[in-house]
Amino acid sequence: MTATEGPSATGTGEPSAPGGGPAGHARGDTVAAVVQQWRAVHPGLDTSPMEVIGRINRCAALLQQAEDAPLRRAGLTRPEFDLLGALRRTGHELTPSELARETFSSGAAVTKRLKQLTERGLVERRGDTRDRRVAHVRLTDAGRELVDGILPAQLAYETAALSGLDGPELGELAALLGTLLGQLEGRLGALRA
Amino acid sequence: MTATEGPSATGTGEPSAPGGGPAGHARGDTVAAVVQQWRAVHPGLDTSPMEVIGRINRCAALLQQAEDAPLRRAGLTRPEFDLLGALRRTGHELTPSELARETFSSGAAVTKRLKQLTERGLVERRGDTRDRRVAHVRLTDAGRELVDGILPAQLAYETAALSGLDGPELGELAALLGTLLGQLEGRLGALRA
DNA sequence: CACATATGATTCACGAGTAAATTACCTGCT
DNA sequence: AGCAGGTAATTTACTCGTGAATCATATGTG
């Protein structure tokens, strides 16, 4: 497992424990075990938020590992694919700032990625005629074909990863996450204080 | 938001879009908009897994930003806190390898963190008497106090972050994520092929 | 008992991302 | 017109984590 280590999307303050012991076939998920450890040590605290947040983080970490596979096959990192995907799905050109917002990364990171992707012939840049500070980026034909070629494999992976839940459960999970995400996106600024 | 950028826990292949346009007060969550863009471009593909996976990733990214705040106040990064937390909740000493597994990071990363945390007097190392390759790491009093001091603030943040969902909803979300996570942890090795 | 092999921890070289500074350009104000 | 201040993109210096070696030790095998 040390092979495809995830980034730091790991723990939220409630990391997780495979068990430490030799018997690895954890029946319940690992987060439950971690939360229980915390409860034993701090009986006074309400640890219930960990059950949600810990699992979200752990799921995100695992899913990313799994999803990296089809991308790596195509020689792309996830952030690179996110960038290309933003261009593909919006259908029109985007400026570097817009790409930064779309992919939730810093402007500097976008600059670097654009350099690489341009060298590989996947995107093209064009200067704005009115405002010469801004650039416009668009997919080349090769870039669009690459994205379109990867996407089905990506979705197949995701479907396989979620196959443990049936249709209605998935719908409910999506809905709950949707309301949570809506709240988070709205409140985030406020919480950051 | 460009301020406290998260790592790469970003998009799963379905990044997200605040709108690009000036009207930023997205009512629904941003993932819905992204999925809709994909559907418009690729009407043939089943994009439903994005609704779940995209949201998981986005929630993870946002929650991590929020939770970084109380940690930074204490001068700790999240991975550092995860390491200390693993020691605290298990209650006993752990070897570097065990810490790596608990925190889902590489051995090299653990080595570096241990060096820093040792210099700050938060953890102590002890060599094993039988097997002189292994080390045993334990919290110092200062380390334990630091963790115990931070934890309540951490949980408060988490509770606040989840306040958009009521009790039953949280329970259901936790349960669904639990089964998903259980499946993922079981199947991951298989999927990695 | 020596040697091949495996394992725990560490070190090293590198790639990737960030924040802060920098460059280049636009725009509102007087 | 000219300048103050803001914004887009990039560059710079730095941190952090990783994968691949490396060191030190343990264990099984002939």
TrEMBL record, chains A, B:
Spans annotated as Disordered: 1-28
InterPro entries for the chain: ArsR-like_HTH (IPR011991), HTH_MarR-typ (IPR000835), WH-like_DNA-bd_sf (IPR036388), WH_DNA-bd_sf (IPR036390)
UniProt KW keywords: DNA-binding, Transcription, Transcription regulation
A GO molecular function held by the record: DNA binding
Domain HTH marR-type: from-to ranges: 46-182
SMART domains, alphabetized: HTH_MARR
Keyword Transcription regulation in record: yes
PROSITE patterns in the cross-refs: HTH_MARR_2 (PS50995)
Protein name as catalogued: DNA-binding MarR family transcriptional regulator
Organism whose genome encodes this protein: Streptomyces calvus
